[in-house]
Amino acid sequence: MKLKLQTSRDSAVSPVIGVMLMLVITIIIAAVVSAFAGGLFGGNNKETPTLAMDVKIVNSGNAADSGFFATVLSVSEPTSTKQLKLTTSWVATMNDNLSYDSGTVLGSTPDGKAFAGGNTTAGNVTATDAVPYGFGPGVTGDVNLTTYTVNQSFGNFTLMPGTGLIAEPASTYSGYSHISGSDLEKVLGTGWEQLRPGDIVTVRVIYAPTGKAIFQKEVTVSGG
Prior knowledge:
Blueprint lengths: L1 H37 L12 E8 L8 E9 L3 E2 L3 E10 L9 H4 L7 E6 L13 E3 L22 E2 L4 E4 L15 H6 L11 E8 L4 E9 L4
């Protein structure tokens, strides 16, 4: 009888240990998955900064005062523009398709018809003339508001309170007509000259490490 009881007791130990081992393995696997999801093993564990800016977009029909102008009001921490991407989107009415020199893109859009525009490539840090250009705090080296220097290119300076950003049309811009390739076109996209006072441009700043927008604002175009 003693031998039979001992045998029964021993046989009951193995399933209990098996269940405990399975629980331990399950807990370890869950911990590893959670660690990867939280970025502890080389994942994305960066915090997204916060940014506030005053943004103005002006289209007066001439190069003297038209452009994209922004001033950093606050930022949670100094942030390199190399980590940022600026995008714009808008809808405008075709006012004069003859005012756009690259007719293959918008030349077939009749006057009075609405069309969408914008740019998702502004802040291309691979370019030495990436726009918008910077000036003020956060910009090191030479600063020139007439002929911009390399260190003023977007991607080469840091956003801090007081940092200014600017993109202007080519000096040939006049009477709402322009030659493509201007700095302002790099920010606002093809057909930007059709924007008129009262139109709305949505401006976003994306923080590349997290892919999140740290700034978004609907900016009303002014006429000067």
